[in-house]
Amino acid sequence: MSSILTNNGAMVALQTLKSINSDLLKTQSEISTGKSVASAKDNSALWAISKVMESDVKGFNAISESLSLGESTVAVARQGAETVTDLLTQIKGKVVSAQEENVDRDKIQTDIDALTSQIKSVVGAAQFNGLNMLKGTDSVDILSSLDRLSDGSVSASNISIARADLSDSSGTYGTGTSLSANATASAGPVANTGTTEAITFSDSADMSGDDFQITVGGSTLNFASGTFLATDTEELAIDQIAGAINALGLEGISAARNGSDLEVTSTRAFETVDLAFSGSPVVDGTATIAERAENVTFSAVSKVNAGDGYRITLGSNVATYVAGEGETFEDVANGLKAAIDSAGIEGVSTRVATNSNGEQVLKIDNDSASAISTFTAVGAQDGTASGGLFGLGSIDVTSNQGAEAALGNVEVLIQNSIDAAAEFGSAQGRIETQSDFISKLTDSLKSGIGTLVDADMEEASARLQALQVQQQLGVQALSIANQAPQSILSLFR
Length: 493
Known about the structure:
By secondary structure, the chain is an alpha+beta fold. The protein is built from seven helices and 18 strands. InterPro entries: Flagellin (IPR001492), Flagellin_C (IPR046358), Flagellin_N (IPR001029).
């Protein structure tokens, strides 16, 4: 049946041509934009995923910039700490030279003062974009990553870099909760006399037949039978024993009789002296002469927090140290040692040690003409931390006492600057690793986005050519279908 009102062939050809044109338009869009999913209408799910990933890429680009800034800041701090270490090493060389008495200590002190000024200049200049990691105690957070969870929530991750205060500031003692229980001072005063051990002999009037030995500080005296006369009293024999010990010429060691006892006295600072006797006249056979020093013993279990301050009073002198971030009681003891040494108290020397209980101990010796009556230790929270090079500006090698104290203190300062440089070096390496990871992660995300939304250009090219041929055929089919009704005219001729 033919109809001039309804052309089914034309309608089919037209629908086919519209479909071909639609596919051709989509293919042309893919070729021009390079994307198979250019908008949400192309594929809403893939488009949404790609947009989330693109936002993450933008975020990681910003993180990469943050890491670059942080790496530069830490690199400047590391270089500054290494330079400070080199300068402190030079100061140590000067301090070692000052240990000799036949050198010009005033000129050495001038060199030390110049190096100290240079260190302060380096610490002050070691900043990048206004941030100085060698001053202050607050840690610095560097944005390092964005962490997206399965529920879509996002959180930021940071690399926390602790500052290393390499200034020589004294800090400020706090007024907070008392910490005095963490620092126990031995019973004063800080005496300037020696420590004594008494040796008791058997109550015998005749030592002429006795055979015995006495060992003092590693030196042994032999008293064979016949050394003393039968007529020698015990007191006379003890006097002779004391004379023999004194004749050994042991530094800081002296002996004397006290009634029927032999007393051996040591004025050696920070050093115990072994004392041993063997033989029949001796009742009290062995002993150890205690070191001459008063102690401040710090807790082995309590924690040191930033701002914790400790203070030692020696007569009219007060030594203070306030701990910084991450410090221990060893740092506190060394800081107080530097504070006492810098006070230049006549005859006073210090040393830091660890006792058998694992506690840090600050030892204080007095070799002056008189005892120091006041000796106390206290502590309090909420202070302002002392600098990591506390005591640097107080190094004074113009005297024997100052030169000796400086030798131990400069070692602590060098170790502090080495620790700071090592920490910054480790942090810089971590930042570099994270930066490299972020770069590779960003590339992976971009590749993933491309896999989701980018057009396959080879496929699009082949499809374009096929659709163009189909379009031509569709046009011809429509033309043929449109000509079909004209054949009806022949029926009416």
